[in-house]
């Protein structure tokens, strides 16, 4: 029997993913899994560009505002829950749609994540001491010694990546790279697509979206979330720029400018993520999706 098909629609913020996903889901009479890591939480409505009530009414969506931000959803746990939802959807539909700009969450569901050993407190302390004493060069030198294979491909300017790899090395006594590539095959096939408008158009849409968020009450939403501002999910673009403003460190105009600037930078990183994965094909509408399905 032919495998069921998960149509994956990725891309940067404000690229039109939501509209395309809804159109595709309507065409196939199926449901949508949201893989946007900031849209899971019901307390966040405006700054995370959640689909409107009108859009949500068109097609059944899963993982939109279905939990509290006090119960954060990791990529691994999302994959576990989403696999269960997909099993139910595929019982009555040959197709399902996955949409989002959080590349790690999409990958977790479609391919699984590598399983790493538990990192001990001792390993964390050891890496932190190294960072405090020798800085980034110390992390680089140690990872080069313990795991030259991973050192050759990692972003060496990203201390968090280096710290994580060294923690695993210390905790397990094995190279970090030895735990990579252990993903599990899925019982469905994936068609990887991306919305990818021209950069100038994308940036203009981002600025317009921020203006629309402000008109919809973004600042009031941020103020209501201020007691939780230290949560990782609120240390993200669209929210993190407001916390210094609320502390009086700069004015409102600066906060708005930073939201727009950082949203453009975030979109650029998303474009890079999806561009690096050669499985993704650029599409602009349902006709393009159908054409790609024929090639699958």
UniProtKB/TrEMBL annotation:
<feature type="site" description="Interaction with substrate tRNA">
    <location>
        <position position="102"/>
    </location>
</feature>
<dbReference type="InterPro" id="IPR039657">
    <property type="entry name" value="Dimethylallyltransferase"/>
</dbReference>
<dbReference type="Pfam" id="PF01715">
    <property type="entry name" value="IPPT"/>
</dbReference>
<feature type="region of interest" description="Interaction with substrate tRNA">
    <location>
        <begin position="36"/>
        <end position="39"/>
    </location>
</feature>
<dbReference type="InterPro" id="IPR018022">
    <property type="entry name" value="IPT"/>
</dbReference>
<dbReference type="GO" id="GO:0005524">
    <property type="term" value="F:ATP binding"/>
</dbReference>
<feature type="site" description="Interaction with substrate tRNA">
    <location>
        <position position="124"/>
    </location>
</feature>
<feature type="binding site">
    <location>
        <begin position="13"/>
        <end position="18"/>
    </location>
    <ligand>
        <name>substrate</name>
    </ligand>
</feature>
<keyword id="KW-0067">ATP-binding</keyword>
<dbReference type="GO" id="GO:0052381">
    <property type="term" value="F:tRNA dimethylallyltransferase activity"/>
</dbReference>
<keyword id="KW-0547">Nucleotide-binding</keyword>
<protein>
    <recommendedName>
        <fullName>tRNA dimethylallyltransferase</fullName>
        <ecNumber>2.5.1.75</ecNumber>
    </recommendedName>
</protein>
<dbReference type="GO" id="GO:0006400">
    <property type="term" value="P:tRNA modification"/>
</dbReference>
<feature type="binding site">
    <location>
        <begin position="11"/>
        <end position="18"/>
    </location>
    <ligand>
        <name>ATP</name>
    </ligand>
</feature>
<comment type="function">
    <text>Catalyzes the transfer of a dimethylallyl group onto the adenine at position 37 in tRNAs that read codons beginning with uridine, leading to the formation of N6-(dimethylallyl)adenosine (i(6)A).</text>
</comment>
<comment type="similarity">
    <text>Belongs to the IPP transferase family.</text>
</comment>
<keyword id="KW-0460">Magnesium</keyword>
<keyword id="KW-0819">tRNA processing</keyword>
<keyword id="KW-0808">Transferase</keyword>
<dbReference type="InterPro" id="IPR027417">
    <property type="entry name" value="P-loop_NTPase"/>
</dbReference>
<comment type="subunit">
    <text>Monomer.</text>
</comment>
């Amino acid at each position: 029997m032919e495998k069921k098909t998960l149509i994956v629609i990725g891309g940067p913020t404000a690229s039109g993913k939501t509209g395309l996903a809804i159109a595709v889901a309507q065409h196939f009479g199926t449901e949508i899994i949201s893989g946007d890591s900031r849209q899971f939480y019901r307390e966040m409505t405006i700054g995370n560009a959640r689909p409107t009530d009108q859009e949500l009414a068109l097609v059944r969506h899963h993982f939109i505002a279905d939990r509290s931000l006090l119960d954060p959803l990791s990529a691994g746990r999302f994959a576990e829950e989403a696999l269960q939802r997909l099993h139910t959807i595929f019982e009555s539909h040959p197709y399902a749609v996955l949409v989002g700009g959080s590349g790690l969450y999409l990958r977790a569901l479609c391919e699984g994540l590598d399983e790493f050993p538990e990192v001990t407190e001792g390993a964390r302390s050891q890496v932190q001491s190294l960072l405090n004493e020798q800085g980034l060069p110390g992390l680089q030198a140690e990872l080069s010694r313990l795991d030259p294979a991973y050192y050759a491909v990692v972003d060496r300017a990203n201390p968090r990546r280096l710290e994580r790899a060294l923690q695993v090395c210390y905790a397990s006594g094995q190279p970090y790279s030895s735990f990579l590539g252990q993903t599990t095959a899925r019982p469905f096939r994936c068609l990887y697509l991306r919305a990818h408008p021209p950069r100038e158009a994308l940036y203009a849409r981002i600025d317009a979206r921020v203006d629309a968020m402000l008109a919809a009450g973004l600042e009031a939403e941020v103020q209501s979330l201020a007691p939780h501002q230290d949560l990782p999910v609120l240390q993200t673009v669209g929210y993190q720029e407001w916390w210094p403003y609320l502390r009086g460190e700069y004015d409102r105009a600066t906060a708005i400018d930073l939201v727009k600037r950082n949203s453009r930078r975030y979109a650029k990183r998303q474009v890079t993520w999806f561009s690096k994965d050669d499985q993704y094909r650029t599409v602009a509408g349902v006709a393009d999706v159908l054409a790609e399905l024929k090639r699958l």
